[in-house]
Design brief:
single chain; about 180 residues; alpha+beta; three-stranded antiparallel beta sheet
Length: about 180
Amino acid sequence: MKDNLKHISKLMSLVLRHKPETIGLKLDENGWADTMKLIEKMNSNYNYGVDISLLEEVVTTNDKKRFSFNDDKTKIRANQGHSLDIELNLEPVTPPDILYHGTAVHFLDSILKNGLQKQSRQHVHLSATEETAKAVGSRHGKPVILTIRAKEMSAKGYLFFLSANQVWLTEQVPVEYICRE
């Protein structure tokens, strides 16, 4: 059952963050999908046996809290990490003094030369804790934790947002705000 949840979560990440067309799903301008349509499309394209209770379990047990329902659970979306052009309607928030970014050693030279860039995503993702940043960096190889002087960036006019799953988001992090531990 746990493997099934993992497969469903990965498929949801793909279709709600990057390629809804994979299963013939449509997202609105804010990234929301009709919950019943998502279930229907997942079941017609894959044999996962998804129903509303299984979808609720994926949403509530996802360790990164990647997904959210609207209040009546008629709509579902990914909280952040989109490569699609959607509007999450996040309001700018003043960040803490320091945030963290976890990456792999093999990306370090490029980051220290060019800063953190959003690449194909809408934002650069930052963490409030070193532990979370380490977990993120570990997915891509030997992790390196970078310290970001976020409050200083904010004072210079860079905007920060906090997603529903507590991931800090910004457009970019210039090199001068990055410290390697």
